[in-house]
Amino acid sequence: MRSPAFRRRTTVRRYRARLAAVGVPMFALLAGLVFGGTIELALTAPAAAQSFTYNPRPPKPAPRPVNNDGRMLVQAVEVDYDYNNQRVSAVGNVQMFYNGTSVEADKVIYDQKTKRLHAEGNIRLTDAEGKVTYANIMDLSDDYRDGFVDSLRVDTADDTRMAATRADRSAGNYTVFENGVYTACAPCKDNPKKPPLWQVKGARIIHDQTDKMLYFENAQLEFFGVPMAYLPYFSTPDPTVKRKTGFLMPAYSSVSTYGYGVETPFYWAIAPDYDATFNPRFTTRQGVLLQGEFRQRLINGSYQIRAYGINQLDRDAFIGQPGDREFRGGVDTKGQFALNDKWVWGWDGVLLSDYYFFSDYRLAQYRDPLGSFLSLPTEAISQLYLTGVGNRSFFDARTIHYLSFSGNQDKVPVIHPVVDYSNVINHPILGGEVSYKTNFTSLSRTTAAFDPITTLANTNGLCLTASADPLARIPSQCLLRGMPGTYTRLTAEAQWRRSFTDPIGQIWTPFAIMRADAIDASISNQPGVSNFLPVGDTQAVRLMPTVGLEYRYPFINVQPWGTTTIEPIAQIIARPNETFAGRLPNEDAQSMVFDASNLFAVDKFSGYDRVEGGGRANVGVQATTQFDRGGSINVLFGQSYQLFGLNSFAVADPTNTGLESGLQNTRSDYVARVNYSPNRTYTFSVRSRMDEATANVNRFEAEGRASFDRWSVSMMYGNYAAQPELGYLTRREGLLGSASIKVASNWVVSGAARWDLEANKLNQYIIGAGYVDDCFVLAANYVTSYTYSAGTTPPVLNHAFMVQIGLRTIANSSSSAGSSGIQ
């Protein structure tokens, strides 16, 4: 007879059985899963297992593929059934797989009487989301609501880690980690036992899975195992939470006008699609600056609104300045929405109590994405826009209002709309490519914007002096940067171009361009304006037909060391004179730099308000060598000639655009460019413009860059001749350098400086250092820069210092200080 204590042992074999027959809930609860319905189980063991003796653990095979057919796969060296005690044991290299979750252990016992699961030895549980749990002992109820785990370690899919000597689970959603440790840093590859860069230790860490919160009791923050801060209590969302209501890390700042400040942001996750942040700044001198932001994401876009306000306690800090008032504040907003896969529309909006509010309180518009106080912008933009992009077409329409931070709001234009459209026709016409573009611009300005370009004009107000003879060129001491009144222009341009290659390799490219401008200007009769433009109403139609031919003849020479291509290039362009040259407003073509980059441009003006006229020839030669062992060198040298008609670059307009550009003479200055890159590490570039008659260098730039594994450096030297007609009364010369050095695996030191060689002083420099890795950020930047204004007003020297600290998944905090003074 069999003893009641007889334990029926089953030789290891493969079979299938219903869940109720073997008490499979033990496997489900170990994986943290609650099943419904019927689940089938398959048990397998190695074919070499021939007895009931427990064998040493063999090497673990790779996890099985995800099983989605409702069955659980279990592998073990030995499976024991004790029917009398209602226990099932899986022993030796136990592996279980179900719907992407896998469990590995040395031994698993399930007691059907007590409905408890007990797992021992080298436990590894991997859930479907990639979270891995390691333990030596697990003892859990079969519904996974209560139990304990000894020597626990958890690795999540987002590289956060938690460990504890013991974890107790209760009520199905509370887990208490005794002597817990939390970090988002990966272990050291060379020495896994080495403390991570940072970790938080707590006498108890409580994880509320319902609220998805971690609560730390008697916590201390350690860096490299050394305690740095102690907190009796703090809480944070668990790593699975992307948005959670609560306080964020504070930020500190210091500015002389408001003293010391601390911001205490509070984040409110109102709903999955919208949230709000309130971050009052408490200052020692001015009181509380209230700040709030609301954001919402919709199905086709998103928008945000920010508001600021403060009742200043000490107006004396801003005596004689725009901030000398009790209440100051502002609102700014932006949004963008997609109409479909090709069209988007959006807006930016700014409204301030005074134009210096953002600057005085160092608000968001005065910082780059990292928060560094790098430079002072001169304006804020409010606009409404619509943009569309096709395969070979582009459309953009927007209205723009510029909020000037200089206080000269009446001299800043309002753009009613500006509309751009361009398209390239997909099929050839007369064998060539046809493209067209249009531009519509309408703007208005209240007061004329004069730019005194000499000290005499600035001190004596000659810009506003009336002149009986406009040719007396009182404007030579001033520029009219912006006309008062309303200005509207519609431009349409079509271009045809086709290339031919003849039997000997010459490339001929004829082209034809037709451009038309319709202009309506209503210029206010303000003092001095008549020296530059006819006041009153002006309507004009300007046509500019252009035909031309471009010629290239590349000569190729192949040598064992590389390939050289020498290519003479010539352009012949025929067109009539520019009509109304210098007699119409110039609002968008004021930037004019002639160099090798635009030598072969048909129209060298940068905008639409001026158009190049007259016959012209552009000639040059380009040589390129590509070395077989890597590296290349490119050289371009050329000159432009006014063949007939009126030279547009010799005609003064309200901004003197084109004068002293190197194109004002019949034979232009020589332009040259050399680019050399011996390998991927070094690049060198030299650009020059030389006087045609004297060979004097009017413009010279030399730039070098080097990039290695641990450091990179760049240096640029610039030397520019005086251009009195444009307001540059003396030669300008300077150096601009930057460097970045990786002093350690995660440490970077960087800096940049601009040295005015004429004044023999640094007028801007930036010094920064930072540590960045997968779990920690530490950055510090110190910046100085001068803000210049027109005339004899002395430049303002600005200083800023900013420190940023970030612990991934825990906190991100910053501190900044700034000051300014007249130098």
TrEMBL record:
<feature type="domain" description="Organic solvent tolerance-like N-terminal">
    <location>
        <begin position="74"/>
        <end position="159"/>
    </location>
</feature>
<protein>
    <recommendedName>
        <fullName>LPS-assembly protein LptD</fullName>
    </recommendedName>
</protein>
<dbReference type="Pfam" id="PF03968">
    <property type="entry name" value="LptD_N"/>
</dbReference>
<comment type="similarity">
    <text>Belongs to the LptD family.</text>
</comment>
<dbReference type="InterPro" id="IPR050218">
    <property type="entry name" value="LptD"/>
</dbReference>
<dbReference type="InterPro" id="IPR005653">
    <property type="entry name" value="OstA-like_N"/>
</dbReference>
<dbReference type="GO" id="GO:0015920">
    <property type="term" value="P:lipopolysaccharide transport"/>
</dbReference>
<keyword id="KW-0998">Cell outer membrane</keyword>
<dbReference type="GO" id="GO:1990351">
    <property type="term" value="C:transporter complex"/>
</dbReference>
<comment type="subunit">
    <text>Component of the lipopolysaccharide transport and assembly complex.</text>
</comment>
<comment type="function">
    <text>Involved in the assembly of lipopolysaccharide (LPS) at the surface of the outer membrane.</text>
</comment>
<dbReference type="InterPro" id="IPR007543">
    <property type="entry name" value="LptD_C"/>
</dbReference>
<dbReference type="Pfam" id="PF04453">
    <property type="entry name" value="LptD"/>
</dbReference>
<dbReference type="GO" id="GO:0043165">
    <property type="term" value="P:Gram-negative-bacterium-type cell outer membrane assembly"/>
</dbReference>
<feature type="domain" description="LptD C-terminal">
    <location>
        <begin position="327"/>
        <end position="747"/>
    </location>
</feature>
<keyword id="KW-0732">Signal</keyword>
<dbReference type="InterPro" id="IPR020889">
    <property type="entry name" value="LipoPS_assembly_LptD"/>
</dbReference>
<keyword id="KW-0472">Membrane</keyword>
<dbReference type="GO" id="GO:0009279">
    <property type="term" value="C:cell outer membrane"/>
</dbReference>
